[in-house]
Records
---
Amino acid sequence: MDASRPNAERARRPIRRLFLLLLAAVATLAAAAFLAGGWILTRATRAALPKLMGSIPAEHGSIQRIEFAAAEFAPMATVVWSGIAIDARLKPDKGSPPKTMRIRIPNVLASLRGIFPLRFDLKLEGVRVESELHLDAPRGVPFAGGEFDTPVQRIDDGSVVLPDVEFSNSWRSSIRRELPELLAFARTGLTTRELSMSARLHFTLEHVPMSVRLETTREKGGTRLRINRQDLDSLSRRYSQPLTLAERELLAVNPLRAPMLLRMKDYAERTAHRLARTGKTYNEDSTRHVLWSFWLTRMYGPEFAEHAANAHEEGSANLPEESDRDRQNNSLGREWASAGKSESQVLALIREDPRVRRR
């Protein structure tokens, strides 16, 4: 029997004990750091909030209040902020009232993507915009009033993912780098920034609560916001004359204009119907097309107005001569809008101008 083996075994015991003690100490420190990390992160975030609120350039508006319930570390190198409440005031467009938005976000997750420079993927879960949103229309536009329905009530069930956000120097520099593209996306529904978003937009149409899903698609190196086509198919069936496939596609790729376009359509139909009842001087169909095209041009320019008017004719049940007549009347509406005519002048021209094609 080798007498050296018990001695070697006795020599290794203290080493194993020391290793176990060190392992227990490291585990205890790691657990303490993990448990205390949330508290530290919460304190650090609260201290940084004033700088974060002041980092928004004044030309874009301001954050009135931002609060959160807790912050914690999660597995896979992820930080989670929960219970976020934001009150923001957007800079109004010319002639429009200030817009105040109340935003609620149950969870914001930042997952580490790289260290040099510091980069992370940002995800917002359960986003809800609680404020009723004002439709973008200059003052004095006749269909801007609430009687024409289609007010946007809220946006909820939202999810936004911003991949590869770089944090190189400070929050201020990161926000100023990301903000222009995000604002462009909010104004136009199109951005060169890679992102993904889904949400549900709630509004009323002809006094009936409606909702459509918003989603993003990647195309030509950019991200586009769209309305779900199946939801537009359901919306279309609410009209006595359903929207054509081309009209539904137009609304799908112009979600930020869609509520106002629906209002404009309703206004032109109501006004044409009212005027036609006053006598034979107004033909309902020609009045509707001229007036609708006139306001499309005033609001969004002749190119978009022509595109929208053509979408209405594509796939419609009109005979060729009926479509030709409608296109002529649409062209007159664009012409008079481009010439700076007022609505009252246009209504007089509809009655008197021989170029207006009536039935």
---
Amino acid sequence: MNTFYVWAIVITELLMIAMIIHVIHYSGFTRTQKKWYVLTFSAIIFCSLAEFAVHCGYYDVAFKIPLTILTVLQFSVAPLLGVFFSGALGLKNQGKIAIIYFIVNLFIEVLASPFGWVFYYDAEGYHRGSAFMIYISFYFISMAYLIATMAIAGNKFNRRDILTIIMIIIILISGIIPMVFFRINITYTAIAVSASLCYIYYNDLVQQDTMADLVSNQKKLSGMQEHMISGLANLIENRDMETGEHIVRTSNYVRLLAEDCLKDGIYSDKIDDHFISLLTRLAPMHDIGKIIVSDTILKKPGKLTPEEFEEMKKHAAVGGDVVREVLSGITDEEYLSFASDIATYHHEKWNGKGYPNGIIGENIPLSARIMAIADVFDALISERCYKKAIPVDEAIKIIEEESGSHFDPNLVKVFLNHKDEFIKASKK
């Protein structure tokens, strides 16, 4: 027996078994798709083994009837491979087509087998009949059906599978030609390789599209989150007689300060592009706790009494809780924690004399320490119902003077090193 042929069959069987194991354990397919893939690979295993049994060289006349039955089944199943894989690619009604096609093939093979039209056995073994091209025709119809199916399935993949279809056609032809003209039986090996390539490539396309959908949905969700955050923050600021520009300005300031820290190597172990993105997007939430403060206090034109100031301070204490109630269920824990830290701790002071918890130094979340500088800077240079705006130079001087007491000295250093950027941003 040809050693090459034996190894071709062994490799074919091992490849199809490996593919079946992968399909069974892979979670990316529907139950229906898994059934079609398993059916496809199992049919290749059966057909290649049946062919091997016929051509293994150990023929005996006693096996004529069993081998005839086996060959009839092989010749009836083999043309179905294209239909099976079409079902795996997602085309509907392939089950009905497969049944009809199988019945037609089986009927013709059963009808032809007593007369040896398609194949026959004699004392020397297996031979092709005078009408062997009937089987070849059915086989080519199946392969053409598969290629047409791949072209149809390619519509939803924007024709990204053209090169794969071309390569599969080349592989199939390379496997069929030796069988038809030279009786070298490597057809099922070519089919096995082609089926594996289809499986791998189409699975990759599905994963690419799934990932693209996830990214698109994530962008939509992020957009919804930002619009909601902006809307809520503007609602709070409008109650405080602001126009919403405070939110825009403070978001710009925190972004600038965080980016400048990255440039200067300050807190580079904590600040990266992701941190800056979260900080910029969530900065508008810093005063969301003011929703619980009455209008009489928020809009009071003069200085607050000690009692009123205690009421005002509550907005920081409840800010984190409000954030979690508003955003819970529409975002992840990292997002919630980041926003909660900003809302709760942006009034804490470096020396521990801030509120609501009197946290000291680096125990205050970095996001809140950055927010504190941005919030105070904008408050100083902006007119409020209870005060006039002060010049930017004076505001910068105040922040410098409160370095190490109110503000993180490392952040103040970065702020002062890049004060021109903040002055420019304040005039926009």
